[in-house]
């Protein structure tokens, strides 16, 4: 059934089909149709002190504004990460900004953190929580900075997002690796990253003392970092007090055949061509971290084999996005079955 639905959606421009699909997910969940079609896999696994119902999550980027979180859980995901969200609403980059590469099972995007802002997301997450009653439905919130915020004030934006969304998130991801916000990736430089993480961890701990609720923090890294840079980042994150690393975001490189239609578009590449780059980053980080922080793998995971390879490289959990666009809930269910529960 999904193949026919996808083929119909692919007749529309990519961003319009994305909007239509999100709307359909919301309607399907409200009507109870999603729950009848997809049966979640319960292979519980604990990471960052959180118990996930299975090890397959939805990566940030698909539901930027937390519009259909229950509907996405109904697709079988063990956890859903929403965002990236910024403190203030912003429209993102000019359209067109999303491109399909079907032969490569890939996407290129230069969305630019288009979102309705942290306050609006908080309102939607309150409603989503009321609809989520299944155990292990972990919701992550991916946060970033507004495009017009100068780099020296970047920490202010992350702190504002954390303050607004802390009550509604099971964990919070700091996006310092999107290629579509000018200067954002500079925050991965060891000194800049150390300062940012110190500020956010201090704020998280302050909120935890006041509320009695500690929210784990993760940092999401780029796949275009070399091994030396990754090892330097590993030292920073170990000392920072954050709880996990997500590897990786989209790539600005183009591991594509020269004939690939759309390969020349600017933006971040996701999907199957990213698999080797992402897996190298996971393996390098796993070697450098030596079990002191868990790794969530994302990038090029599109079947059981690639998910298992990511776990073998050192990941505790995996996330998908592009594979879900091309394959639908079947790929979520297949991977969730294949990755064992915690013993």
Could you characterize the architecture of this molecule?
The protein is α/β, with parallel strands linked by helices and 343 residues long. It has a single domain, classed as Alpha-Beta Barrel (TIM Barrel). The chain contains twelve helices and 13 strands. The strands form three sheets. The protein has an eight-stranded parallel barrel with strand order 3-4-7-8-9-10-12-13, surrounded by four helices. It has a three-stranded antiparallel sheet with strand order 5-6-11, with no helix packed on it. A two-stranded antiparallel sheet has the order 1-2. Helix 5 (118-131) packs parallel to helix 6, helix 6 packs parallel to helix 7 (190-211) and helix 8 packs across helix 9 (275-289). The protein is globular.
List the topology elements.
Elements: H1 2-9, H2 14-30, H3 33-37, E1 45-47, E2 50-52, E3 56-58, H4 69-73, E4 79-85, E5 98-101, E6 106-109, H5 118-131, E7 138-143, H6 154-165, E8 171-175, H7 190-211, E9 217-221, H8 227-240, E10 244-247, E11 268-271, H9 275-289, E12 295-298, H10 304-313, E13 317-320, H11 322-327, H12 329-338
Parallel strand pairs: 3-4, 3-13, 4-7, 7-8, 8-9, 9-10, 10-12, 12-13
Antiparallel strand pairs: 1-2, 5-6, 6-11
Helix pairs in contact: 5-6, 6-7, 7-8, 8-9, 9-10
Q: Name the CATH class.
A: Alpha Beta
Spatial extent as radius of gyration: 18 Å
**CATH overall fold name:** TIM Barrel
Secondary structure category? alpha/beta
Main sheet overview? 8 strands, parallel, barrel
Essential attributes:
343 residues; 13 strands; alpha/beta
Brief summary of the model shown:
The chain has 343 residues and is α/β, with parallel strands linked by helices. It has 12 helices and 13 strands.
């Amino acid at each position: 059934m999904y193949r026919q639905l996808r083929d119909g959606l692919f007749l529309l421009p990519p961003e319009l089909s994305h909007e239509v699909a999100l709307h359909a997910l919301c309607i399907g969940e409200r009507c109870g149709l999603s729950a009848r079609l997809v049966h979640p896999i319960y292979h519980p696994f604990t990471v960052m002190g959180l118990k996930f119902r299975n090890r397959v999550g939805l990566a940030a980027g698909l539901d930027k504004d937390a519009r259909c979180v229950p509907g996405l859980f109904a697709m079988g995901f063990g956890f859903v990460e929403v965002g990236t969200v910024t403190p203030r609403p912003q429209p993102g980059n000019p359209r067109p900004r999303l491109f399909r590469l079907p032969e490569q099972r890939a996407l290129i995007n230069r969305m630019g953190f288009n979102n309705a802002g942290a306050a609006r997301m908080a309102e939607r997450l309150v409603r989503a929580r009321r609809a989520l009653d299944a155990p292990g439905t972990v919701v992550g919130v991916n946060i970033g900075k507004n495009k017009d915020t100068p780099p020296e004030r970047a920490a202010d934006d992350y702190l504002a997002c954390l303050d607004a969304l802390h009550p509604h998130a099971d964990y919070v991801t700091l996006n310092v690796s999107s290629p579509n916000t000018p200067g954002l990736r500079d925050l991965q430089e060891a000194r800049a990253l150390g300062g940012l993480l110190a500020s956010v961890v201090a704020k998280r701990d302050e909120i935890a003392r006041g509320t009695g609720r500690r929210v784990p923090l993760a940092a999401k890294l780029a796949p275009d970092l070399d091994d030396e840079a990754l090892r330097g980042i590993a030292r920073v994150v170990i000392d920072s007090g954050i709880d996990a690393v997500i590897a990786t975001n989209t790539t600005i490189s183009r591991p594509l055949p020269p004939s690939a239609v759309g390969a020349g578009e600017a933006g971040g590449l996701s999907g199957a061509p990213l698999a080797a780059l992402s897996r190298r980053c996971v393996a390098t980080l796993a070697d450098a971290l030596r079990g002191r922080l868990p790794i969530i793998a994302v990038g090029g995971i599109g079947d059981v084999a690639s998910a298992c390879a990511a776990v073998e490289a050192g990941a505790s959990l995996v996330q998908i996005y592009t594979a879900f666009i091309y394959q639908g809930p079947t790929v979520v269910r297949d991977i969730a079955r294949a990755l064992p529960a915690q013993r």
